[in-house]
Structures are given as C-alpha cells and as structure tokens.
C-alpha cells in the first residue's frame, strides 16, 4: 500500500520502492490508460525498473506525463524495446505464461541487446601477481581503477538508459562482484601507477555506512603511498538525498567522508545528474551542502539522452545550477551502444551541437565540463566539432582517455556523417584506418575474439 506523504511530518522519510510488482498501486499511475500500464509491464519484464517515493512524489511532474523527463528516466517506455522484442514479450504475457517462461524470454531478448559494450567483461579484468583474476575490478586507464563492491549492485532507483542493466536483472554470471577489499588493496599496491580508485556499482551509496566503511578503512589502513584520490560514482544525491541528511546512517556516512579528507586524500563524489529538476528540491540542496562541508568535492556527469535532456537550455541550466550549489561539471557522455540505445541515442554531430550551444551559455566556472564523450573500446573519445579540413567537412575527434595513454589529445578525423551515433559508425577521413586501430588489435587480439563471441 502507499505510504502516507512523508515529507513534511518532521520525521526522517523512509524509502519506498516501486517496481513491476507494485507500481499499479500508485495513484499517479491510475491516470494512464490500461494499455500504457501494460506497455510498462512488457518493457519492465526485460529491462530493470525501480522508482521510489522521492522520485515519484518530488521529482516527476505528473501533469507533464508521459513527457516528463524524470518519468522517462525511471519508468519503462514502450519504445525502449524494438518492435519485434516488444511483441515477443507482449505475446508471452498475453498468453499468461508462467514466471519461468517469462524469464527465459526476457533473457533471450536481453542477450540481443549487447549487454557488455566496449569489451567490459574481457578487456579490463585485472590480475594479481599470483594470477588471481579480480572480477570485481576494472583497470582500463593507467591512473584509475574501478572497484565494484559486491554489496552495491543496485541503486535507489534505476535509470532506464543504464548500461549497467545486466547487473540488475539477475544475469548472475555477468555480475562484477568482489567481497574482498584486501584483493583491491593488494592490486593497488602492486600498481604504483594507480592514483585513483573509483567505487562504482550499481550505486555504492546504497550500502549502509557500516559496510561501506569496511572497504574505505581497508584502503586507509593500508596507507598506500600511490593512492591520492577516492572517487564514489553515485546517483544518491538525485534519487535519495536523504542518504546524507536524515537516514539513520547519514551522520556515519559524513563522518566517514571526513575521515578520508582528514587523511589528506581527495574524496570526489562523481554525482550523476541527468536534469536540472534533480537539483531543485530542498533535500538535494541540503545534501550537497552537508557533503561539501566534509571537504568532499562533487563532480557531475550525465549522458546526453533523447526524450530526457536533448536540449542545450536544459544542460546550460543544469551546469549553472550545479556551479551555484558548489558542484563541478565534469563529463557529458554519449549514450552507450547497449540496451535501449536506439531510443535514447543521439547522433554525434547533434550531440556536439547541443554541447556547444550549452557550453557557450555558461561562465568559465561551468566550462570545466568535457564532452560529448564516448566510452568506447579504445578509450574515451570526445567529439570536438565538424570543421572543414583540406576542403572537406569532417568530424574532429580526440581521446580524453586511451588504453594507451599516448593516444590522449591527438586530434584525428572521421568522414562527416550525420547518422553516426558511435565510434564504430565512423570512417577515417584521410586514411584507411584510424591511427590507433592496429595497436588496439595487436594488444588485445585474444580479448577481441572473446568479445565477438
Ligand atoms: C571514465 C573512466 C575512468 C575515469 O576517467 P577520468 O577521465 O579520470 O575521469 C576510469 N575507468 C574507466 C573504465 C572509465 O570509463
Ligand atoms: S544510478 Fe547509475 S548505475 Fe544506477 S541505474 Fe542509474 S545510471 Fe545505472
């Protein structure tokens, strides 16, 4: 049943999740047609769906549904599935299939949605000197390793565009999970080139402070001379700011942040905000204030998403609001080649146009942001513009991060193509291959074969 409105009672609000099992009970959902509810059910059986009472009651403007950006961000949308996939699941549900059959059909569809873009599974698994493979970590760029705590494979709500979706739908063998923080510490100590560890998930801020603390304390206790920065990738500020202000572990969480900064390490919350609406409530403003008071920096990032934020004005306002609140705009991403990319994806040339139109509207303090950037197999590739070079219109690109650090900041050019949405769609403008292709193939030939299979 629905929780009473919890926001103005003076008591700490508790999170109430909405998923496939109970979303039909929401009064707000009654305004939709039965057909729309059925469509949500069809899509929600294939892609992960979770909303919560803060998202539903404070972020979504139900008068603007189905166009409201946060509604599109969190509730399943019919066109997120291609027609044939949609029909396949719709028919399965109409036939009244049992749970096992529905799950089997769902998995069959999911496997056709490129669940592991950019060679995530095979290319980036680190190995300890003793040969142990660390499936809970990724090390793609020299300075920064990613750590996926096994306890953070979920979020306070799910973003419909999310490329981490295979982790949320019980495809267990695809879960990156590692309980052992000493393996993480071991790896970082074996790799003096690592200065940053980035906790990710899911959302690490889903963990209770007591559990998160065990990972952080392992790092602090090890006193690793090379470790300078701990980053936490999180959407908790947008989806559940109470984590930092009123939850029963809020004080402990902030205390932990203070312990990190007090040790002279840089602590960065890599905060995901997709729309300025997420910065507008008193709760999120409070949360940003108390997090910053611990000496933590908040850097922000988001993909550019059709139906949600494909508008320069939305980005300009979001960056301005972030700067006003003391956050540092960091990345604009191009949406990945997985899941519902056909629904959320935006062409590279249009992405660049939106980026530029937004960027030119903000002061220098908002121009810390970089993008639009694709996290592709060879690295993070930024679309720089569409200049005319040697009499020919091209797409100018550069690496912001590369598997080989020497690739970074070298301009290169692709044939102008308004339809291209990802690096794989682009052809070199002046040569027969891009400068990094041979090296990528030879360095990762074994892994490339795996990726294709
Ligand atoms: C983006 C990213 C990082 C961090 O890169 P920065 O440019 O330092 O923020 C690290 N690892 C992977 C796999 C990434 O995609
Ligand atoms: S909060 Fe991050 S990991 Fe979680 S669903 Fe959204 S994008 Fe994915």
Instruction: Please identify the structural class as seen in this structure.
Output: alpha/beta
Distance between the termini: 45 Å
In CATH, the topology of the largest domain is named TIM Barrel
Named at the architecture level, the CATH assignment of the largest domain is Alpha-Beta Barrel
CATH class of the largest domain: Alpha Beta
What order do the helices and strands come in, and which of them pair?
Layout: E1 17-18, H1 34-44, E2 51-52, H2 53-59, H3 69-74, H4 83-94, H5 99-110, H6 120-123, E3 137-141, E4 144-147, H7 181-190, E5 196-199, H8 209-222, E6 229-234, H9 236-239, H10 242-245, H11 250-262, E7 266-272, H12 282-292, E8 297-304, H13 312-324, E9 328-334, H14 341-344, H15 348-359, E10 370-375, E11 379-385, E12 388-389, E13 392-402, E14 412-415, H16 437-443, H17 445-452
The site of pyridoxal-5'-phosphate has 10 residues, from strand 3, strand 4 and strand 13.
Question: Could you list some keywords that capture this structure?
Answer:
alpha/beta, TIM Barrel, 14 strands, 17% strand, globular, binds pyridoxal-5'-phosphate, binds iron/sulfur cluster, metal ion binding
């Amino acid at each position: 049943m629905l929780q009473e409105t919890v926001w103005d009672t003076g008591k700490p609000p508790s999170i109430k999740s909405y998923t496939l099992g109970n979303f039909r009970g929401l009064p707000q959902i009654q305004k939709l047609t039965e057909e729309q509810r059925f469509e949500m059910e069809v899509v929600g059986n294939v892609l992960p769906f979770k909303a919560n009472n803060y998202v539903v009651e404070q972020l979504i403007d139900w008068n603007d549904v189905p166009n409201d950006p946060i509604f599109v961000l969190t509730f399943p949308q019919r066109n997120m599935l291609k027609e044939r996939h949609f029909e396949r699941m719709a028919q399965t549900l109409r036939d009244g299939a049992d749970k096992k059959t529905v799950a089997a059909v769902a998995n069959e569809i999911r496997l056709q949605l490129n669940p592991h873009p950019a060679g995530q599974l095979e290319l980036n698994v680190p190995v300890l000197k003793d040969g142990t493979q660390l499936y809970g970590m990724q090390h793609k760029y020299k300075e920064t390793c990613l750590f996926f705590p096994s306890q953070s494979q979920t979020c306070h709500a799910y973003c419909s565009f999310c490329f981490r979706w295979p982790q949320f739908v019980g495809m267990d063998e695809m879960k990156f999970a590692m309980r052992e923080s000493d393996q993480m510490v071991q790896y970082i100590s074996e790799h003096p080139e690592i200065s940053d560890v980035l906790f990710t998930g899911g959302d690490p801020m889903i963990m209770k402070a007591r559990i998160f603390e065990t990972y952080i304390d392992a790092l602090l206790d090890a006193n690793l001379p090379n470790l300078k920065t701990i980053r936490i990738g999180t959407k908790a500020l947008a989806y559940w700011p109470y984590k930092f202000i009123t939850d029963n572990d809020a004080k402990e969480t902030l205390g932990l942040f203070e312990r990190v900064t007090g040790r002279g390490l840089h602590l960065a919350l890599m905060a995901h905000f997709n729309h300025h609406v997420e910065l507008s409530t008193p709760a999120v403003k409070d949360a940003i204030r108390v997090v910053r008071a611990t000496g933590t920096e908040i850097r922000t990032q988001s993909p550019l998403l059709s139906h949600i934020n494909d508008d320069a004005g939305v980005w300009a306002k979001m960056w301005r609001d972030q700067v006003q609140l003391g956050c540092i705009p960091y990345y604009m991403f191009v949406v990945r080649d997985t899941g519902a990319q056909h629904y959320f994806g935006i062409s590279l040339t249009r992405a660049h146009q939106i980026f530029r139109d937004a960027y030119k509207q903000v002061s220098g303090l908002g121009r810390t942001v970089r993008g639009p950037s694709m996290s592709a197999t060879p690295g993070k590739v930024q679309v720089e513009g569409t200049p005319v070079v040697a009499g020919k219109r091209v797409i100018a690109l550069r690496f912001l991060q590369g598997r080989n650090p020497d690739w970074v900041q070298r301009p290169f050019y692709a044939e102008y193509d308004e339809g291209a949405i990802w690096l794989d769609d682009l052809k070199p403008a002046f040569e027969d291959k891009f400068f990094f292709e041979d090296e990528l193939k030879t360095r990762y030939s074994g892994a490339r074969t795996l990726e294709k299979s």
